[in-house]
Amino acid sequence: MKQVLVTGASGFIASHCIIQLLEKAYLVRGTLRSLNRATEIESVLSKHVSTENLGFVSCNLEHDEGWDAAMEDCDYVLHVASPIPRTAPKDPDELIKPATEGALRAIKAAQNAGVKRFVMTASTAQHCPPLLLQLLAGLQRLCISN
Fold first, then answer.
1. Angle (deg, nearest 10), helices 12-23 and 38-46
2. Angle between helices 130-145 and 38-46 (to 10 degrees)
């Protein structure tokens, strides 16, 4: 069975990716900044699909730890994680720098692990007006809690 690592597993887009992957019988490993949210995320996803082939690992875009282990035995990576602040940052680099460095960490670890395919999404959050950022953050909380 093929295994896919999905970064940012607590996010809105990632959750939809995970559901589709599980429906297609992939093994899925999701990254979370904190494994304290794993039960909550699995509970939400289990309302839509069997989570028997789902697991979680702890990784943070801003730290090197955990990325090599996360990629172990993965065939594919969907890099969906990107920082989305609750309020608009004063400096765009507050979003761009962690997103870029996190993507580079994930790419390097995937390369080291021999991952066959790496798919990366991008965030346009730095271009969003503050009200839209607040709306997106609220929508994400709503989707995760339901």
1. 60
2. 70
Contact between 129 and 88 under an 8 Å Cβ cutoff? The reply is: yes
Range of the domain at 42: 3-145
Question: pLDDT tens digits for 65-111?
Answer: 999 999 999 999 999 998 777 777 788 788 788 888 999 999 999 99
Number of folded domains in the chain?
A: 1
Cα separation, 64 vs 68, whole angstroms: 9
Q: What is the CATH number of the domain that holds 89?
A: 3.40.50.720
Q: Is the dihedral of CA 120, 63, 131, 143 positive or negative?
A: positive
Please tell me the distance from the alpha carbon of residue 88 to that of residue 12, in angstroms, as a whole number.
19
State pLDDT tens for residues 12-61. Answer: 899 999 999 999 999 999 999 999 999 999 999 999 999 999 999 999 99
